[in-house]
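Hello,

I think I submitted the D-arabinohydroxamic acid job twice by accident. Can you confirm which output corresponds to this input? Input:
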Amino acid sequence: MFQRGNESALRAAVRRTVHETPVTDLHTHLYAPPFGALLLYGVDELLTYHYLISEVFRATRMPYDQYWALSKREQADLIWKTLFIERSPISEACRGVITSLDKLGLDVGSRNLDSYRDYFADADPDAHVNRVFAAANVHDVVMTNDPFDEVERPAWENGYAGDKRFHAALRIDPLLNNYVYASEMLRGWGYNSTTHVDSSALSEVRRFLSDRVKRMNALYMAVSLPPDFAFPEDSLRAKLIAECIVPVAAQHNIPFALMIGVKRAVNPALKLAGDGVARADVGAVERLCAEFPKNKFMVTMLARENQHELCVAGRKFPNLFIFGCWWFLNNPSLIEEMTRMRLELLGLSVTPQHSDARVLEQVIYKWEHSRAIIAKVLEEKYCDLLNTGWNVSDSEIARDVEGLLGGNFWDFQQAVL
Ligand code: HDL
Ligand code: ZN
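Support: Only one job matched these inputs. Its output is below.
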């Protein structure tokens, strides 16, 4: 039991516990090995992460088309030279590459890119997953599974039977953001879906969603939404949410995850790196949670300006679960600001972080960097308690940290409201 005067021992215990507690990473773009080339790994994939693509174009004068005509290896060479050798790799995405290589035991001091390539060259994907998850102390991750993705779908159709390290999440952006396209795909799969959305079409959309949730054993349904997302609204998207997503989520007792605030293709020439951010309306989240109090909603918002309002909304709605420092917020200064704000307003009822990893080894750096910040904030909060005469035990710290690094998500995912 830690008490007044034990601050330094307490701080060490918090850092150790955060470091040693395995993570459930509740949102990633990683794939289990049976998905083949969709599981990205290795140093060339790390270097051509779209975060670094947007950064290299700030330093090089190379025309977009010339860059996109390069091979993956040539793109990685350019990024390594431009952002790591000709400039110090200060940005979070640059620093992350170095952290991941270092934690895998590679000699970062050598700056020998080809030697790093040799390390990954003949990796067995399954063994490499175990090695990387061990280095990151990640127990399991949740994938992003888009049934409309032509590359991913064959794995599901060829009997993919699951992998306990990789859970599924049903991602439905095309359904909610491009219904005409999605409706045509559903018809091709035998659902009597029509662009005229009547009760029969809605029933078929529900059948499709339920079939996919069952086939994937999806932990939740997810969608990314633009800054102008509104609810309620006289729109097809709002109708599909209210009459399809919400009832199917309730039927399977799984959350609906809304990731709000992305402006897609602000600069299309950057492809995946071309998306932007804008402030969204937290009121839409409040009204959704209020209208469906028995449904579970997971929400993360992309704009820094939305974070305080979202925390306050979290205080109003027990069916609202707040998670992650998403994308442009996944930087030390903003992770600290958001984690401090959340613990102060919501206590231990959140999941402070997810990695959003697209390349396997990114879980190493994203969790190394985030754990350090989560521990720093937690240390302060426990010291504040000590200084009020409230004593804290090792087991209580372990309990609280286990919740923050995955347990709170699982409790919410399985809760019956
Ligand atoms: O929509 C999303 O899930 C985002 O996370 C995008 O995939 C984005 O490109 C990304 O990788 N952010 O980290
Ligand atoms: Zn994502």
